[in-house]
Design goal:
- With about 230 residues, the chain is mainly alpha-helical.
- It has 6 helices and 6 strands, in the order H-H-H-H-E-E-E-E-H-H-E-E.
- It has a two-stranded antiparallel ribbon. A two-stranded antiparallel ribbon has the order 2-3. The protein has a two-stranded antiparallel sheet with strand order 5-6.
- Helix 1 packs across helix 4.
- The protein is globular.
- The N and C termini lie far apart (about 70 Å).
- Pfam families: p450.
- Its cofactor is heme.
- It is found in: Endoplasmic reticulum membrane; Microsome membrane.
- It comes from Euphydryas editha.
- May be involved in the metabolism of insect hormones and in the breakdown of synthetic insecticides.
């Protein structure tokens, strides 16, 4: 029996330019580190302004801590329902990506854009489509009183009504591949932070929140200023 010829190694490295490699590296950094820290900052900001929500979350954290002997793992943190509600509402109000970009792969008829139009609007193959996540997340049609930080939007009774209007990590087959990891990191950081530290506003806290115009990503004007004290008991 004749020996098989060795398979030729397949690689796409030669198809990538240095600029593309650098662009991917920067994207991994921004999405893997920058977005998590920014979302954590906004979560602490909202919890500082609403101490009743902070204390309810702290009670759940302490219950978990005592029930599991201080141990925390990926499975156990998924059982913390109010933690998930708080993180989800933070991502709704302050999404890491304010706009999603997609490329149309085949003509798609969106129908008439308004009641006065006589023709349908057709997105042609190759055209770029921008999805305004920020605007959708703050649309009162989908989220009543959208400027209010309200974790109850994501309770078991309410989250089934969100459908496609909630997309902090994108949606469909092209959504963020690191979303589950990012959520886990956010929850772990909040867990240990609030377990030992109480957060509340300072004189410099931006109230009401206003966004800075100096950065391409979401940042509060004059930065995030808060006060911290150690909790007396764990």
């Amino acid at each position: 029996m004749a020996a098989k010829a060795p398979r030729k190694a397949w690689s796409t490295i030669s198809m990538w330019s240095i600029l593309e490699f650098v662009s991917q590296a920067v994207t991994f950094y921004l999405n893997g580190f920058e977005n998590v820290t920014a979302t954590l900052s906004f979560a602490l900001h909202e919890l500082a302004l609403q101490p009743e929500i902070q204390e309810r979350l702290v009670r759940e954290i302490k219950q978990h801590h005592n029930r599991n002997g201080g141990r925390l793992n990926v499975r156990s943190i998924q059982t913390m329902k109010y933690m998930d509600m708080v993180v989800s509402e933070t991502l709704r109000l302050w999404p890491p990506e304010t706009v999603l970009e997609r490329v149309c792969v085949k003509p798609f008829n969106l129908g008439k854009p308004n009641s006065t139009s006589s023709n349908d609007y057709v997105v042609q193959k190759g055209e770029r489509v921008l999805i305004p996540v920020w605007s959708i997340h703050r649309d009162p049609i989908y989220f009543p009183n959208p400027e209010k930080f309200n974790p109850e939007r994501f309770s078991e009774q309410n989250k089934g009504n969100l459908n496609m209007c909630y997309m902090p990590f994108g949606s469909g087959p092209r959504n963020c591949i690191g979303s589950k990891f990012a959520l886990c990191v956010l929850k772990v950081l909040l867990y240990y932070f609030l377990l030992f530290i109480e957060v509340y506003p300072s004189k410099k806290t931006c109230i009401p929140p206003k966004l800075s115009k100096r950065y391409p990503r979401l940042r509060l004007k004059d930065s995030h200023w808060l006060m911290f004290t150690a909790r007396s008991q764990v």
